[in-house]
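From the shared-data thread, chain only:
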Amino acid sequence: MMRKIVFLLVAGIFFIGCKSKKTVTATTEHRLEKPKEISVANEIEKIDDGLYVMPEDTGEFIRFDIASPQEYIETFAGIAQFEMKAYGIPASITLAQGLLESGIGRGELAQKTNNHFGIKCHTGWQGDFDHHDDDEKGECFRKYNHPMYSYRDHSIFLTGRSRYAFLFDLPNDDYKQWAKGLRQAGYATDRHYPQKLIALIERHDLHRYDTAVTDAGYGKRQKAEVAIARPQYASYIVQAGDTLYSISKRYAVSVNDLKRWNYLYDNTLAVGQELTVKTESFNK
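Structure, as C-alpha cells:
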C-alpha cells in the first residue's frame, strides 16, 4: 500500500543541481486576493524505496505568471530533470519545447489550459480539455490543473507512441539529434522546429541540466530507460474521482499497463478497488 502523499519542502533531496533561485507566484483561475505560493519540483514525493510519485490533483486550476525565459527555466528545470531521470527524455529538449510551445508560459493556450507542449486531445484522452485555434479553428487541446501534469503527460505522450520510439535509441544527452528526431517523427509541422529548439537550448545553456542528470549515472550514452527504483509490487486503492489516466500519471506507467496488470477490459473503476500499479518485470 502506498503511504499518504506528502509534499516535500526541499526539492534538492532528489533533483540534481536544479534548485530554483526564487519562488514563482501562481494564482487560482479566479485569482485569490492573496497570491498562493506554488513551486513545482518540490511537489513530488520520494518514497523510501526510491519511487517518485506525483501528488494527487486537487482539482484547483493554478495559473503561473512567468515574467521571462529565465524565470520559466528556473521554475520548470527541476521537473524537466525528474522527467529525464524517469523517462529518458533530455531535460534540455523538454524545457526548450516548453518555452517554445507555451510562449514562455504566457501564450493563450498555456494560460487557459496549462498545456505547455501543445498536445491535442487525440483519441482516448480522458482528461479535461479546451478548444483553441491552431492549424484549424476550435481544435481540442488537453487541459491540466497544474503545469507539472503537462510535463508528465508530455513524457507519457512521447514514450507511448511508436513513431517516437527511435528517439529512445539516441543518447539522452544528444539534444541536437533529439531536436531533429522530433521533427522527423512529426511532432511539429514547422520545418525549422529543430533549429528553434537547438537555438533555445544553446542560448540558455539548457544542456547543463542534461549533464547534471547523466553525470549522476542516468542513462549516459546508452538507450534511455525508466531510471527510478521500483518495488517488487505496489498497489493503490481507487478513490472517488480517480481515472486510469490520473493513476497512470501519478505512478509513471501507461494506462495499457494498468489494464494489463489488473485484467481490466475497459476503463471502468470502482471506489475501493485495489489496483496493482507496479510490478517486478515492468520496464520501459
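The chain has two domains: 11-229, 234-284.
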